[in-house]
Amino acid sequence: MFIFSTKVRRIRVQQKLIAFLFQASLVFFLFPLVGSEQDHKKIRGIHASNKSHNIKHMKMNPKLEFEIKLHGFLLWGSMAFLMPLGILAIRFSNRQRSQRRLRITFYVHAVLQKAAVLIATAGAIMSIKNFNNSFNNNHQRLGLALYGVVWLQVIAGIFRPQRGSRARSMWFFGHWIIGTAMSLLGVINVYLGLQAYQEKTRRSITTWNILFTVQISLIVFFYLVQEKWDYIRNQEVA
């Protein structure tokens, strides 16, 4: 009976892995890759040939600016919105007693994280295909590391040990540490990306910084409130 259940679980894990890899591969083929490296080389050539002192204030190519903005929105939606929401969902499940609600919150967590990974993959494809990846700034270096950690977390999530097994507690600790660190570094990289956008386009990012800070503050507030909600309610009991 144990051998049979082990085989069934192995088959389910393989099916999940194949299904997710198939969905990820669709991103490579269906995601619209706008622009090309050739266009960027032409732009850089024009900039290099211009000897004027006002070269830094030249208007950026609209196509390249659109690609940068799209890349930014994709990675914001993945690292700084969907992933924190997924963490909130799974933390909320700790207060659930109903098995049905536990399953719902787990599936919400899984769907949000899966969507975040696929969107991050699309953003990675954009940066590889369309940008000059010289990795000469912290935003690019941290982004490369995050892409690798994202997929490490996916593999860890698919091959999670069964509840009650010896490896489960170690897996849970590692999954929690990596997920939390990934979200924090993702938020930091959004700020670094905004700074890089300002340096490249000479546009103000004050409004975006304020809006993003408000959003992160709200997420942190809800995280802290739901963590202590039972304790807060118990204060009303004599």
UniProtKB/TrEMBL annotation:
Subcellular location: Membrane
Family matches, as InterPro entries: CYB561D1/2, Cyt_b561/ferric_Rdtase_TM
Keywords from the named record: Electron transport, Heme, Iron, Membrane, Metal-binding, Transmembrane, Transmembrane helix, Transport
Membrane topology: Multi-pass membrane protein
Membrane-spanning residues: 17-35, 73-92, 104-128, 140-159, 171-194, 206-225
Domain of life: Eukaryota
Record flagged with keyword Transmembrane helix: yes
UniProt KW Transmembrane helix keyword: yes
PANTHER family cross-referenced by the UniProt entry: DOMON RELATED DOMAIN-CONTAINING PROTEIN, OS05G0565100 PROTEIN
Name of the featured protein: Cytochrome b561 domain-containing protein
Source organism of this protein record: Stylosanthes scabra
Classification of source organism: Eukaryota, Viridiplantae, Streptophyta, Embryophyta, Tracheophyta
